[in-house]
Amino acid sequence: MLDELRRVLCAAVFLTVSVVSQNYAAEFKDLRDGRVYRGVPAGSLNWFKQSLKYSKTAFITDEDGFPFYRSDHWQASCPEGSQLPDETDWDELVEEKFSGPDKVQNMNEFVGNSSLGFYKFEFDEVVNKRKGYAYFAVRGPGNRAIRFETKRGTTKFVDIEDADAVQIRCVFGRDQFAEKNISKDMIFTDKRDNKKYKVDVRGGKIWMMTNLAFSVTSEKQCYLDDRAYCEKFGRYYTYEDALKACPEGWHLPDDAEWRDFQKDRATLNWDNLGQGGCQDWDNFCDGMNSGHYWSRTSIQPNTARSWEFNRADKDIERTDASVHKGLYVRCVAN
Q1: How confident is the model at residue 175 (pLDDT cuts 50, 70, 90)?
Q2: Which residues on adjacent β-strands are paired with residue 317?
Q3: 204, 223, 198, 228: which is closest to 330 by C-alpha?
Q4: Which of 41, 158, 197, 266 is 20 to 30 A (C-alpha) from 20?
Q5: At 104, which helix (H) or strand (E)?
Q6: 18 class by beta-carbon count within 10 Å (0-12 exposed, 13-18 middle, 19+ buried)
């Protein structure tokens, strides 16, 4: 199951998708004509930021150079490695990008310089441009399109005639690992200090498999006040610091995520989890047989949930710890 999920998350089309600049951005190269499309991430998909411009399957091209496609050529128009989005894909995009207070701005950015309206065969012209409507093809039965009302930031699925033509936006799978700066050998590099962390998929999410060690400025942050143990186990954080410790795009797990993490106990690495102890004022928990970790969940005042993994007994215990104690942090990808 983990291998399958990892395979899906990694399913980028490496011949056509690339990383640009230090901040990850997906690009898709259409090998048929060499045109490159930027990707807009939403849900599990990247969306072409620009409307498709593959002329060989287009029915007509408007005065601005944007092709319009009839439904009998929709499926064949998206390049190999991408596909036409269906209603569910469009619904997920709308929910994520066009449902908040910035929906009008976001929709206009998505539509960009695409030509508005759709080609109406009966009139032999592109219609509804002045209303601020943009139409895109929808995969599925019939001749369904989605209409973007860019002046109001709303959408609607509509039926068009066989002879009419609309624009196309293609979608392709996201590489969730590359977006998080995770290498093919499952190593995450924290750009803040270039420390490297092994990662893996547990409970359907990407977890750091070693304790966070960001910003070790004092031996007091280490087991037995020995900096060497920070290199071995990671550093201690108070609860307040733990909430802010994870790098951008990652977060401190809550109780539900910790439960998902340890559901399959047979696959837990007890030697990895069950060492390092904790810091309780000037005292330390058993560092050779226990590891203590913060949860984001807080129920009682001045306490937060903590999870103790004991490698000697292969036991897990959840407690409410003082927010001033020093515990470890495992980060989870957003």
Answers
A1: confident
A2: 308
A3: 198
A4: 197
A5: helix 103-111
A6: middle
